Amino acid sequence: MTITDEILKEFKDRMHLGDDEDESLRRILSASNTALKRMCGEYDISIDEEFKELVFERSRYVYNDALEYFNDNFLSNINDLGIAKALEEIVAESDTDAII
Fold first, then answer.
1. Which SS3 state, helix, strand or coil, does residue 17 take?
2. pLDDT at 78
3. pLDDT by residue (tens digit) across 33-61?
4. pTM above 0.90, yes or no
5. Cα–Cα distance between 88 and 29 in angstroms, integer?
6. Average pLDDT of 73-83?
7. Cα–Cα distance measured from residue 2 to residue 27, given in angstroms and rounded to the nearest whole number
8. pLDDT exceeds 70 at position 98
9. What residues contact 57, with CB distance under 8 A and at least 6 apart?
10. What value, to the nearest 5°, has the Cα angle with vertex 43 and ends 84 and 38?
């Protein structure tokens, strides 16, 4: 999923940033989205507000050159999303098995 103009604007508004950094911010948001999908599972940043919040927070840490603190500070949020996704997949799998 690419970072839409709407997601970029929402992040810029939150961070009180101007238009001169759009490409850099888009790269940061995209990298954060990809990294968190790897940790938490497939989420859609346009739909899942909790996931979007986590992407924004990770991006804020990257922007402020403090990424090394993100995982420790948001470990419970990362784990919660990962567990929720795993449970969702288990339920979907058991529903499929029940049909067969």
1. coil
2. 97
3. 999 999 999 999 999 999 999 999 999 99
4. no
5. 25
6. 96
7. 10
8. no
9. 70, 74
10. 85
Do 29 and 7 form a contact (C-beta atoms < 8 A)? yes
In terms of Cα–Cα distance, which of 28, 29, 8, 30 is closest to 17? Answer: 8
Alpha-carbon distance of 34 to 29, in angstroms, equals: 9
For tokens 């929720």, the residue is: 84
pLDDT tens digits for range 16-39: 988 888 999 999 999 999 999 999
Contact, 62 vs 32, CB < 8 A? yes
Instruction: Give the type of residue at 36.
Output: L
Q: What is the largest CA-CA distance in the chain?
A: 55
């990770």: which residue's tokens? Answer: 58
All residues at 6 or more sequence positions from 55 whose CB lies less than 8 Å from its CB, including other chains? 29, 32, 33, 36, 45
